[in-house]
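Order emerges. As here.
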Amino acid sequence: MKLRFHNDTTHAKYSPQGEIAAGLYEALETARCEALGARALPYRGNQRISWCDRLNDAR
């Protein structure tokens, strides 16, 4: 998901200073990309959840 929805230039431009802020920023960016990707997936019922579970298990 991140390959499609993440932009390195924009991400670096708005990246905050500080360990906690940077960690939170990274977590929010991951959640944002995954949410956009989940919305872009074709699905029927709980099929989307099943696909995402398999993707996470593969990591």
